[in-house]
Automatic annotation (TrEMBL):
Its main location: plastid. Keywords: Chloroplast, Hydrolase, Lipid degradation, Lipid metabolism, Plastid, Transit peptide. CDD domains: Lipase_3. This is Phospholipase A1. It comes from Zostera marina. One of its GO terms (cellular component) is chloroplast. Gene3D superfamilies: alpha/beta hydrolase. The keyword Transit peptide applies.
Length: 346
């Protein structure tokens, strides 16, 4: 897979795909935990439940907003930064009526050093996504809870591409609830972990930015009358970061997150860690739904030594073009099709 083909995947997000979704039925407010994996989506994937479909498309819009906000123009003075201020990011991205307000921009840094002639004037840190909170009372009532969404874009910079190919597993050394019966270590891809935990020259690590914001929000809504959900979502690299972030936040704030429902909506995400990592994620009660185009090679990588984590919803793309099969817009178009089901085959 050439760099040019892969780069095409992440630079074609300006299409005019319509992602307006009819409001789900009122049963979302009553059964939102089931639609966010409380019962591992049993009975909701085959065929795909219409309310769940609408929820997945809604989170897909949050990921699209992350792409649309990012400045892809390498000749621009704002390259690798957000094009929009936080207080108007969602409206300027084309989503004015979400009921959510962005509360924090997130940045990712690479831990590797490349020669200047490879990366040019690029910074080691890039805008990678945002945290947004549902603050509209009508939307909170419709959702049945106050939702915090953490949305990540996919690969865009040279350093991120290099990190993607660092597939060696690295140990994650942190406390995790549950006994380690096997004695095996939880391990994740070193490149993904580098982007999550490395400190940049200007910005702190994505890990620290996110911990600080989630801590602030947990304090702010500690006595809120509405239940709290924390939903991580992303596409491709962003999906991997969403899994790592959910794992990190759930371990860091284990006692406090026990009252908040933590879930991940992953679009076209590669594998993140080994079997022990998967078991620890399950022990923490993190609910992950992987949306996978069965022709998307990225979802099958890195492969040896890695394990899929979470439940999987398969969708089918007729195209054999690798870039098309991995495109977020294609994922969302396929999700709209009434034939979508978890046992889809190509």
């Amino acid at each position: 897979m050439t760099f040019g083909v892969l780069n095409h995947v992440h630079t074609t997000f300006t299409s005019n795909i319509a992602t307006t979704v009819k409001s789900p039925s009122t049963r979302l407010a009553k059964n939102w935990k089931e639609h966010h994996g409380a019962n591992n989506w049993v009975g909701l994937l085959n065929p795909l439940d219409d309310t769940l479909r609408s929820e997945l498309l809604r989170y897909g819009k949050f990921v699209q907003a992350a792409y649309k906000s990012f400045d892809f123009d390498s000749t621009s003075v704002t390259y690798s930064k957000s094009r929009f201020p936080e207080n108007s990011l969602l409206p300027l991205s084309g989503y004015p009526a979400t009921g959510y307000q962005v509360t924090r921009s997130l940045h990712s840094s690479s831990g590797i050093k490349l020669p200047w002639w490879v990366v040019g004037q690029q910074s080691s840190s890039s805008w990678i996504g945002y945290v947004a909170v549902c603050q509209d009372e009508e939307e909170i009532a419709r959702l049945g809870r106050r939702d915090v969404v953490i949305s990540f874009r996919g690969t865009a910079t040279c350093l991120e591409w290099v990190e993607n190919f660092r597939t060696k597993l690295t140990r994650v050394t942190k406390y995790v609830a549950g006994a380690d019966d096997s004695g095996a270590a939880a391990m994740v891809e070193s490149g993904f972990w580098s982007l999550y935990s490395s400190v940049g020259f200007v910005h702190r690590s994505l890990q620290q930015e996110l911990r600080d914001e989630i801590r602030r929000l947990l304090d702010l809504y500690e006595n809120d009358k509405s239940p709290l959900s924390i939903t991580f979502t992303g596409h491709s690299l962003g999906a991997s970061l969403a899994v790592l972030a959910a794992y990190d936040i759930s371990t860091t704030f284990f006692q406090r997150c026990s009252s908040a429902h933590v879930s991940v909506v992953s679009f076209g995400g590669p594998q993140v860690g080994n079997g022990r990592f998967r078991r620890q994620v399950e022990d923490l009660g993190i609910k992950i739904l992987r949306i996978v185009n069965t022709r998307d090679i990225v979802t099958k990588l890195p492969g040896l030594g890695y394990s899929d984590v979470g439940e999987q919803l398969n969708i089918c793309c007729s195209s054999k073009n690798m870039a098309d099969c991995h495109d977020l817009n294609v994922y969302l178009q396929l999700l709209k099709q009434p034939c979508t089901s978890s046992n889809c085959r190509f």
